[in-house]
């Protein structure tokens, strides 16, 4: 993963994080940019590890995951993941999809999260997984946390190629 952060006239404050540790917080910045690049293979490895851990709890083994990303404008991404697994000798395929939109305050809202399965076992597994994912539908999470609360997004561009690139410019609130 690659992370680049640039800003001018940066003002920092120090506050305590949720664990009580001192942490820097950007209280202002005139002009700035951030670039995050993640190789598709890194994303797929993370998804595979997550899926394998979740499947192991159910006594299943994940064989593969395939990630598909589609940009929807500059600030939204549609994602779908196809997971192939086996429990004993019975194969199951589960498809998970959802959307993420980023707002001016660098918060991500998740929507349209859905799960479907192929075949009888895949359909049962998808139903269980859908129930676990449902609480995330409509949930908004701050991407910058408390560290960039006073920074407003000016532009954001998501490129779903390989690597996935997220480029943003920002300034003070």
Quick overview:
By secondary structure, this protein is α+β, with helices and mostly antiparallel strands. The protein is built from two helices and eleven strands.
**Number of distinct beta strands:** 11
Any idea how many domains? 1
Q: Helix share of residues?
A: 10-25%
Distance between the termini: 28 Å
What class, by secondary structure content? alpha+beta
| Mean pLDDT over the residues | 86
Tally the helices: what do you get? 2
Listing every helix as H and every strand as E from the N terminus to the C terminus, the arrangement reads EEEEHEEEEHEEE
Radius of gyration: 19 Å
Which stretches of 5+ consecutive residues score pLDDT under 50?
none
- Spatially, the strands of the biggest sheet line up as 5-6-7-8-9
What fraction strand? over 45%
- Shape from CA axes? elongated
Major sheet attributes: 5 strands, antiparallel
Write the topology of this structure.
Layout: E1 2-8, E2 11-16, E3 22-28, E4 31-38, H1 40-56, E5 61-72, E6 76-87, E7 90-102, E8 107-118, H2 119-133, E9 140-142, E10 151-159, E11 164-172
Antiparallel strand pairs: 1-4, 2-3, 4-11, 5-6, 6-7, 7-8, 8-9, 10-11
Describe the structure.
The chain is of the alpha+beta class and 173 residues long. The protein has helices at 40-56, 119-133, and strands at residues 2-8, 11-16, 22-28, 31-38, 61-72, 76-87, 90-102, 107-118, 140-142, 151-159, 164-172. The chain has two helices and eleven strands. A hairpin with a 5-residue loop joins strand 2 (11-16) and strand 3. The radius of gyration is 19 Å and the shape is elongated.
């Amino acid at each position: 993963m690659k992370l680049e952060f640039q800003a001018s006239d940066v003002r920092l404050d120090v506050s305590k994080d949720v664990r009580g540790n001192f942490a820097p917080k950007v209280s202002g910045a005139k002009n700035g940019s951030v670039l995050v690049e993640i190789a598709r293979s890194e994303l797929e490895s993370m998804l595979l590890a997550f899926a394998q851990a979740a499947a192991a709890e159910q006594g299943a083994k994940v064989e593969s995951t395939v990630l598909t990303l589609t940009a929807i404008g500059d600030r939204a991404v549609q994602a779908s993941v196809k997971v192939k697994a086996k429990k004993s000798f019975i194969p199951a395929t589960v498809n998970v999809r959802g959307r993420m939109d980023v707002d001016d305050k660098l918060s991500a809202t998740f929507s349209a999260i859905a799960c479907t399965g192929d075949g009888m076992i895949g359909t049962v597994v998808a139903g269980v997984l859908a129930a676990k994912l449902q609480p995330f539908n409509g949930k908004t999470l701050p991407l910058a946390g408390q560290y960039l609360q006073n920074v407003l997004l000016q532009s954001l561009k998501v490129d779903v190629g390989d690597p996935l690139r997220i480029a943003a410019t920002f300034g003070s609130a």
